Input
Amino acid sequence: MKKIGFIGLGVMGNGMAANLLRSGYEVTVYNRTAGKAGELIQCGAKEAVSPADAVRESEIVITMISNDAAIREVYFGDNGIFGAVRPGTILIDSSTISPSLALELTSTAESKGAVFLDAPVTGSKPAAEGGTLTFMVGGTEAALKDVEDVLLAMGRKVIHMGANGSGATAKLAHNTIVGINMAALAEGMAIAASGGINGSAFFELVQSGGAASRTAELKGEKILANDYDVQFSLALMLKDLRLSSVLSDNLKVPTPMLEAAKSLFQVGDSMGLGELDMSSVTQAYEQWIGRKIGGDK
Output
């Protein structure tokens, strides 16, 4: 059975690591903020004192970190992954990072005799806990074949997107659609609320017609209940849209809808909503229209 190092026990990582343990893997965990490994340790995980410590005895290392800066710290920093990684280790990053950083990690891993896969995921906290994530993977087919069983212990589908960097690019393109869908749902529900339409009735219509989407399915009921407990935070969505904006500029792709959605999430962040679920962006519309979107009034 493979030995796995898992680094990053936040909203997504905790559930992912738990599913590896349930599948019988030997898992060593590390989190930059102490105190998040308790339940995993009770389930059989070992706790490392640094990223390097998590890597030394591991055949596969999975990172699930919030942003590029944090990834750099974990991989390149003092007591980081690259200071201790052994030749032959497969490094898998499931964070949402810039494609350029994914390529830099690939090159450094190769210089250490290791292999790197950028393998971000679709699905938020419920999917991480339920093991129903989808992995989009950039890297060699041979390396992916070696770890596919590990990925499927945490998810329901693995899609090979192409060479290294392709997973990161696909994730930013995907989350561009998610962010735009979230903005569209909030705006449509604000129009309906301003017109005096019952929120629940309107949401039923959304799910029954051409406006239906996975985003609406996941977020509509939360909006109606004014429930903004985090599944995927507004701040992380804004981070992803900013990364996508940089990528699209580099690719010379016009993205007017991306820029509009990014601006809306920036408004939400400036309102102090960053640590709430991304569906809390509807609160910006509620402020503008002077009424709640959810409920019957």
Remarks:
- The chain is about 50% helix and 15% strand.
